[in-house]
Amino acid sequence: MFHRTARVLEHVKLAERTFRVRLHCPELAATIRPGQFVMLRLPNTTDPLLGRPFALYDTVLDGSGAPVAVDVVYLVVGKMTGRLVEVRAGEDLQVWGPLGKPFLDVGAPDRVTLVAGGIGQTPFLAYARELLGTRGFGGDAPRARTKKVSLYYGVRCADLAAGVDDFRAAGVDVNLASDDGSIGTKGFVTQLLESHGVTGPLVGCGPEPMLHALAKLAAKWNVPCQVSLETPMACGVGICFSCVAKVKTPEGDDYKRVCVDGPCFDAAKLVWE
Fold first, then answer.
1. 148-188 pLDDT per residue, tens
2. Which of 125, 147, 177, 191 is such that its CA lies 20 to 30 A from the CA of 237?
């Protein structure tokens, strides 16, 4: 794990209240894998005191193909992100990572289906590149794991759809849903997914009700499903035990720390309450 101050190279708006920040951090960019995350903290302040977790969106390569920067995408929802949006290119942020574990192995299926709700698309761009074999991460050479990646992405309204062009440019088949019908199909993203018929394996990230619905659909279809949890965290390194998830074990229910045991879990092993 690296803990350092990183220079902001870019800070751009992707959608309503949604921004992408690019950090120059070659050591982190060379080691982080899709599914993992970083903690970011504003320097020279104690308000807010704690860092916040942000999923890897993508890595950036230099002219020789070496990874030199990481991208994260965030939605402005509270004090930290409200102040983060004020940071400009050329300024610094404190960053530590890579944290957590990568996405679980899906084998070599013909198709992998990613399901995102709200800001839950953010872990999936790098993952789609890895699955399709157009980019290697963590020092690995590119290797195709599937022939096709589909993204089912649900938002409340069209103004909140962020990064859609990035996914299409990466070769991902994008299917959109919105609560108000202003973009894609009107309704929940899991309803859109179900209407298209059985597919899998499934990988989800988003609000817990959406993930629970996805887990039920996976069980109905009898297909593998993993989910990346958006559990609030305080430390990010497993010390504070504030981000536990209830899981099933052979000995009975137990708790796992999302920051070190996840954030990616087999949906069938989670206890949905």
1. 999 999 999 999 999 999 999 999 999 999 999 999 999 99
2. 125
User: How many other CB atoms are found less than 10 A from the CB of residue 48?
Assistant: 16
Q: Give the residue among 142, 185, 137 at the shortest CA–CA distance from 161.
A: 185
- The token pair at 249 is 């074990």
pLDDT confidence bin for 45, thresholds 50/70/90 = confident
Residue 50 is predicted with a pLDDT of 87
User: pLDDT tens digits, residue range 216-263?
Assistant: 999 999 999 999 999 989 889 999 999 999 999 999 999 999 999 999
pLDDT tens profile 123-139: 999 999 999 999 999 99
Q: Which two tokens stand for residue 140?
A: 């690995």
DSSP string for residues in the chain: -EEEEEEEEEEEEEETTEEEEEEE-HHHHHH--TT-EEEEE-TT--SS-S-EEEE--EEEE-TTS-EEEEEEEEE--SHHHHHHTT--TT-EEEEEEEES-PPPP--S-SEEEEEEETTTTTTHHHHHHHHHTS---TTPPP----SEEEEEEEESSGGG--SHHHHHHTT-EEEEEESSSSSSEES-HHHHHHHT-----EEEES-HHHHHHHHHHHHHHT--EEEE-----SSSSSSS--SEEEEEETTEEEEEEHHHH-SEEEGGGB---
CA 121, 70, 15, 165 torsion: positive or negative? negative
